[in-house]
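Lab notebook page, bench 4
Experiment: in silico fold of construct C2
Operator: M.H.
Input chain length: 314 residues
Purpose: comparison with the prior construct
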Amino acid sequence: MHSSSLNTGKKKEIVFIKMNLLEDLKYQFRQKENGLTKIILINVIVYITGTILWVFSKGLGNMTLFNFIYINQHLPASFSEFIYRPWSLITYFFSHTIPNPFHILGNMLGLYWFGRLVSEYLGNRRLVSLYILGGLAGAAVYLLLYNFVPYFMHRAPLYGMIGASASVFAVIVAAATLLPDYYFHLVFIGPVRIKYIAAFFIFISFIGSVDNVNIGGNVAHLGGALLGFTFIKQLKNGRDIGKVISATGDFFSNLFSRRRIKVSFRNSEKNFTYDDKEPDQKEIDAILDKISKSGYSSLTKREKERLFRASSKK
């Protein structure tokens, strides 16, 4: 009797944990201002699902289903293969090597550290646009080199490319272009300006672009890095090259949302604009005083916008 009630209690606890997890995931995906969290969650969910399938496939001795799904997530190097797998233009930068956990861990840590800066200064929508555009830019460089440059044409990878590194590089370089003198405190090293961290990663990928181990990944990194730099430079000139991505996201969001929610979302979303008056020195001094007293996190969204706009005119 005691054993039966104990087992029942454990079952209830497991069900409760499962429901809590599902509710937490639903809650995160319902939120409007957590693009960074959503991107990381999608990557993690895809990786965990793929890993579970891999374990069962290995255990049953039949890898057919796993291989079919896994290979179709890769971006092929050949245009002739790509036209039959166009979805891989998107799936590759939401997927990672299985079962290697360090591939996704490194990418998600880099995305989290640098993505928080981009999101804090430029907002949720621009971070999402930057991530997607970085992945697309990496794919474009990858496909162009492997189809038109002889050195790369003879070294095409068997399955293609997979991983969010190009998107992460776009975010890293964007953050370093936006806030070059911002410090990260690195273990055993101390404070390091993020412009030097970004430069280090770019240099390593530049060397690796002719290394047979991961040529495709490294050239995609450089494509993402170039996109991140261009994104910020264009934004400072008043041009948001991520508008198409944001508009596409709005279209699908509104398509599957109730009218009441749609109106509320449109009214609540506030992006940086460039059509109001220029911030004067008195306003900027007041914002800087506030930062010195209470830290950057104490600024309102408009104050962050004004500070960013003032810095872009220098």
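Observations: Residues 1-6, 259-275 have pLDDT under 50 and may be disordered. The CA atoms of residues 171 and 228 lie 6 Å apart.
Next step: discuss at group meeting.
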